[in-house]
Amino acid sequence: MSKIYPVIMSGGAGTRLWPLSRQSVPKQYHSMITEHTMFEETLMRLKSCGETKTLPPIIICAEGHEKLIKQQCANMDMAYSAIIIEPMPRNTAAVGAVAASHVDNIDPDGLILLLPADHHIEDNQGFWRAVQQGAELAGQNYLVTLGIQPSGPETGFGYIRRGEELTNNVYRIDSFKEKPSQDIAESYIASGDYFWNAGIFLFRAERLRKEYEAYAQDILARSEQALRQARYKDKEIFLDAPAFSHCRADSIDYAIMEKTQKAAIVAPVEIGWNDLGSWLAIHEQLQTAIEGNNICRGDVISLDTKNSLLRSDGPMLATLGVENLIIIATGDAVLVARRDRSQEIKKIIDILKQKNRTELL
After folding, report:
1. Residue 234 — φ and ψ, nearest 5°?
2. What are the residues whose beta carbons fall under 8 Å from the beta carbon of 289, sequence distance 6 or more?
3. Following DSSP, what letter does each residue of 195-231 receive, concatenated?
4. Confidence check: pLDDT of 276 > 70
5. Residues 298, 180 contacting (CB under 8 angstroms)
6. Residues in CB range of 55: below 8 A, 6 or more apart
7. What integer best gives the mean pLDDT of the chain?
8. For residue 214, what pLDDT band results from cuts at 50, 70 and 90?
9. What are the residues whose beta carbons fall under 8 Å from the beta carbon of 61, sequence distance 6 or more?
10. Which of 51, 209, 286, 348 could bond 100 through an S-S bridge, CB–CB 3.0 to 4.6 Å?
């Protein structure tokens, strides 16, 4: 089996987890479920690879987060191959193009394991079993993704519909589906043909680069230019800002995976996966580990409070006679929201941007 080059995508802003997640310290660098940050959990997952031929990770992050990454790698006693710094966000298609070019220059036959830094996975061994299964197909030039077995009709995740079976629990991808309405999500679950899209991919470096040449040549050209003209400092690679700024922003799902003729899905994968994209998702994840329905973190007093997530990283937080709320307090901001509206926090972010509020920084 070819060597696996893990590429950790750590450039997300995590705005739906405001006010804790900020531009200076996004959600992946915070502790959300365990005592470790989500980025540290990702590093721990890589360390549990067992006999899988896995190299130290390549980490792609936003400018200004290098120190956070180096500190948290040190916390986990984890070596890294390189830290590639994006001067501005350009979504996952650009990340994939940079990764494809970087690894292709080192080892064209190497397998890129592209994975987000901000996901929670309970079964790391199950994760690696799925990766090993996908690696066999990726070695045959398929672009592989992991399909998570849905636990219910979740409207906050994208879905993938399976096509014909290629081998045991590995299928061609029929189509990608955006986050559905409740009715459509229920129909997906009832059919048994749909899986959650975890955004975890596996492909040969040379093959991925050729797919970009075929379907997203403009993204590849700008990304490679930014990499060629990058500034190097030890293991840090600072992508050239003028070149990267002209790179089209798109997701790797749209730019490549939906167009390629050789996309496959390993499914169903049951590894206790959650992308923790909202405060509601974090509340529900934490509720599975405790008795009762209130979650309290930090300096919190709750009286006659039900089914709520209460977290303070700043002042003392007290509640009385409330239910179904998410209350998050930091040193300079407090969020109070109904649990069923946690996906709408972007509306607040938009207002803060319009007003140039420092609470985003």
Report:
1. 55, -120
2. none
3. EEEEEEEEEEHHHHHHHHHHH-HHHHHHHHHHHHT-E
4. yes
5. no
6. 3, 4, 5, 6, 81
7. 95
8. very high
9. 10, 11, 69, 83, 84, 85, 86
10. 209
- Domains of the chain as residue ranges with CATH: 4-274 (3.90.550.10), 279-360 (no CATH)
User: Do 265 and 144 meet the contact criterion of CB atoms below 8 Å apart?
Assistant: yes
Q: Residue 282 carries which side chain, given as an amino acid letter?
A: I
What are the tokens at 98? 């940079």
Residue 239's alpha-carbon distances to 112, 235, 236, in angstroms, are: 19, 13, 10
46 pLDDT band, cuts 50/70/90, is very high
Q: How far is CA 152 from CA 136, 155, 171, 187, in A?
A: 30, 9, 21, 11
| Cβ atoms 163, 193 nearer than 8 A | no
State the residue for tokens 């990454």.
69
Give me the helices (H) in 107-203, please: 124-138, 182-191
At residue 293 the predicted structure's pLDDT band, cuts being 50, 70 and 90, is confident
3-state secondary structure 245-301: HCCCCCCHHHHHHCCCCCEEEEEEECCCEECCCCHHHHHHHHHCCCCCCCEEEEEEE
